Amino acid sequence: MMDCFHMRPPRTGTSLERRRLIDRGRRLLASVLAGLAVLAILQCLESTVATQTVLLAAADIDRGQTIHAGDVEAVSVPASDAFAGALRHVADAEGLIAQVDIAEGMPILGTLAGERPETPPGHTVIDVRLSGGWEGLLPGDAVGLTASGICSAYPADVPNTGETCAIAARAVTMGMPAEPEAGSGTALVPFALPSDEALRILTLQDQGMIVAVATEERY
Length: 219
What we know:
With 219 residues, this protein is an alpha+beta fold. It has 2 domains: 51-114, Antifreeze-like/N-acetylneuraminic acid synthase C-terminal domain (Type Iii Antifreeze Protein Isoform Hplc 12, Alpha-Beta Complex); 123-218, no CATH class. It has helices spanning 12-48, 90-93, 195-204, and strands at residues 51-57, 72-78, 97-98, 113-114, 123-130, 141-148, 164-173, 187-194, 209-218. The strands form 3 sheets. Strands 5-8-7-6-9 form a 5-stranded antiparallel sheet, with helices on one face.
């Protein structure tokens, strides 16, 4: 009879394990709730801070490079006067030409990128072989062209020192200079020129030397 009323001892090990699992679950739930609370607070703070959209360089952009849609990204940042001159939309930057090297992550300010020039009426674009003065040229720069060795072929009214002559008062740079030709010390640069000047230069440029002379003008 005693066996019928025998009481089993409590499962101490199992109860302890369950309590531990419950404690772990509570701690995990508390951590999740705390994280959600922090997220809610941050969202509330963000909603009270004025923001603006700014274009940033998505990768390094080299000076003279044409900016494409994949080169920039639009991000939301706290409103600041520091971004007053920054471009806001990808379409605003697409097709512009970097005036300086722009590092990845830098805002695309309007002063850092310029419009690609259009060919002026009555002009044609030709590659001119320069013996100097091409360093630093950007599309849109207007320069003068001075030559030596071919001045006798130019009209008497062209400014002429006897050794050099001004063969173009205003040539608009239409693209970046090509890589200098090995061993030649010259580089081809596309310029927009009046058609008569362009034809004369194409005919004579291999017979002398031509250099670009910087001016303050930009097309």
